[in-house]
């Protein structure tokens, strides 16, 4: 596996707001690997979105709110990926604690840049900040903190500043114009993923007179 492999690359997934509620989840796919980031009892974690029983996809929707529970035989998983709820375990599976631990979900990497959430298939590799570079990482973090409020979608024009990072295109409304301050985030679906895994969101400052970062 080389550093050019999609498995080794960070991909922007969503914002922290999307994962703020217990059981909130967001999914994507990198090549053949489905991924899920999920809030489990307040912990936000990332796994391969594949059940370790018979390899069914756990969450089929791009985003939603519901427990990390496989739709096939109902195994549910905790924040460490360990199956903790196994219907009919005494008769059908007979899995004790050690057996359950061996069937934990495969973890994936998860990192935050300000309020932006990124995922990577590989567990090892450069940090998100190393990958993006310190300046770009700091700029995106500051922008995401300055534009926390989702609102009415707008279409960026050529006059907007465009910032590229991984699969993310951030468009920032020009400061010296009549355009209201806004930040449009467009996350392209990773390689091999269905277009339904692309996401676009328009964000606004918390207050209309808030200062934007340089
Ligand atoms: S395939 Fe997931 S519980 Fe059986």
From TrEMBL:
Gene3D superfamilies according to UniProt: Rieske [2Fe-2S] iron-sulphur domain (2.102.10.10)
Keywords from the UniProt entry: 2Fe-2S, Iron, Iron-sulfur, Metal-binding, Oxidoreductase
Any Pfam family the entry gives: Rieske
Domain of life where this protein originates: Bacteria
Domain Rieske: start-end pairs: 11-104
MF-aspect GO terms: 2 iron, 2 sulfur cluster binding; metal ion binding; oxidoreductase activity
Iron keyword on record: yes
InterPro entries found in the cross-reference section: Rieske_2Fe-2S (IPR017941), Rieske_2Fe-2S_sf (IPR036922), Rng_hydr_dOase-A (IPR001663)
Coiled coil: none
SUPFAM superfamilies on file: ISP domain
Family annotation (PANTHER family): CHOLINE MONOOXYGENASE, CHLOROPLASTIC
Protein name from the UniProt record: Rieske domain-containing protein
Biological source species: Azospirillum griseum
